[in-house]
Design brief:
- This protein has one domain.
- It is globular, with a radius of gyration of 18 Å.
- It has 14 helices and 3 strands.
- Strands 1-3-2 form a 3-stranded mixed sheet, with helices on both faces.
- The N and C termini lie far apart (about 40 Å).
- Helix 9 packs across helix 12 and helix 11 packs antiparallel against helix 13.
């Protein structure tokens, strides 16, 4: 059975503590680029067991940190976390405190864990050229959290012998702890190996695009980034290609979303210079 070590829990505790330093900040708009946009996709249906969702997400995040390290660059982490929190205002999940963290990895990917824990790999960040592209990727992951895709994809009742997620995260018995371990392991496998249903990824693309537009960013930049990823080294995009629908299909659907919601030719923010002020090295 997988066990989260005290060192790993300490890493997550330190991560959360450091991110609290950023939570009061907000990305200031340049030239009043914040869009006035409304969309029915962002309606809220708050789940009663939010506390269980957050606790479960924290467990999954701790397990992710067993094999990865965060980038030791305070200004970069602050920049990504501040932008992420700004975007999360449009998620219709005000009951969640979102956390964003750049992790060291040769793979181009980002991971959305339940409860608002989002990791972005260094390889994904290096391929970006402006803030709008970063906003698009973070918005996609925020959409996964908003829709509770990981929680909904897990057969919690099967894993937990009839238990709910709330029971799994609050149960003190060995049986509940084992079931909790199994559920968290399943979540990791979904994130890094199996992937979510294609419909979930398409939904995250669609909602993510509306979130970045609401926040005032040019939606075409997210599509441009996906095209660049599709042309990147096969070894870097292997995991992303395995866990997501094909880039061609995603781009085709995103173009349709732009037309459907009137997002064509929007002269919204790109912010290349501000992005370049926060390099990895």
């Amino acid at each position: 059975m997988f066990q989260v070590s005290k060192l790993t829990v300490s890493k997550l505790t330190a991560l959360i503590a450091s991110l609290f330093l950023f939570q009061c900040a907000s990305v200031p708009p340049e030239d009043d680029f914040r869009a006035r946009w409304s969309d029915s996709l962002l309606g809220s249906n708050v789940q009663a067991n939010t506390e269980a969702e957050i606790k479960f997400g924290r467990e999954v995040a701790a397990r992710m940190l067993v094999d990865v390290d965060g980038v030791e660059n305070f200004e970069l982490q602050k920049y990504v976390n501040t932008l992420g929190k700004y975007l999360a205002q449009y998620s219709a999940r005000p009951e969640l405190e979102f956390y964003f963290w750049v992790i060291e990895s040769d793979t181009i990917n980002a991971y959305a864990m339940p409860g608002g824990y989002i990791f972005l790999t260094t390889s994904a960040y290096r391929l970006m050229e402006n803030e709008a592209e970063l906003a698009g990727v973070l918005a996609h992951e925020i959409a996964h959290v908003k829709q509770k895709h990981i929680v909904n994809a897990l057969d919690i009742k099967t894993v937990g012998a009839g238990a709910t997620l709330t029971q799994l995260t609050s149960g003190a018995s060995d049986a509940f702890r084992i079931a909790m371990d199994q559920a968290a392991d399943q979540a990791i496998q979904l994130l890094t190996d199996e992937g979510l249903n294609q419909s979930d990824e398409f939904e995250a693309d669609e909602i993510g695009l509306t979130i970045m537009v609401q926040a005032g960013y040019a939606p075409d930049e997210y599509l441009a980034y996906l095209k660049r990823v599709s042309a990147s080294k096969a070894t870097q995009q292997k995991e992303l290609s395995h866990t997501h629908p094909s880039f061609a299909t995603r781009l085709e659907r995103l173009e349709a979303v732009k037309v459907s919601y009137g997002m064509e030719n929007l002269n919204y923010a790109i912010l290349e210079e501000r992005f370049k002020q926060h390099p990895l090295e």
